[in-house]
Amino acid sequence: MVEDARKPSQPDDADWLIMVRHTAVSEDLKGVCYGASDVTLSEVGLQHIDDLACELAASQPRTIVHSGLTRARLLAEAVADRLDLPPITDARLAEFNFGAWEMRTWDDIYHDGFDIARVVNEPATFAPPGGETLHAMRDRVRGWYDELSCRSEGQVLAISHGGPISSLYGSLQGLPEIAWPSHVPAFGGKVRFARPKG
After folding, report:
1. Which CATH number goes with the domain that contains 169?
2. Rounded Cα–Cα distance for residues 28 and 98 (Å)
3. Do 182 and 131 contact (CB within 8 A), yes or no?
4. How many folded domains does the chain comprise?
5. Are 45 and 22 in contact (CB under 8 A)?
């Protein structure tokens, strides 16, 4: 059902949904937990948008959707402008909400006594203070995916984030949650999903 973008593409419905991670964020955010915060792109990230938008537009998606966060919206709008399509915002595609951890360094979070690994080791029950569980993120993304599979016609392009993309990939593949982070695509990376059977 799921095809990684690094594998050769297949005809027909193999590229029904293409999920793309936004381009690179500001260098100032290295080592920072920014999750669902609306952060800026780096100069490299901004420059990458034009070439990536041309590449994505070439596949002629019928629908373009993004998370609403600026780093995803800018790429979605660049593709949409090339195809004269209205981009759709769906907050279910937003990055994992780390609550009170947002915009703090990972080192500071760790030194405050938090076991960051609990997010993946206790995916159904552990949430950062004021944030969400890993399963909560998975469920909102799967809800979007399930709706999409029932009604969409033609290829769908979704500009999202590492967490939602890897959680959808991992859950559809039946992978354990602890393995999901290893499937986060690089900035500007793509993961292809085949149209569900039936």
Report:
1. 3.40.50.1240
2. 18
3. no
4. 1
5. yes
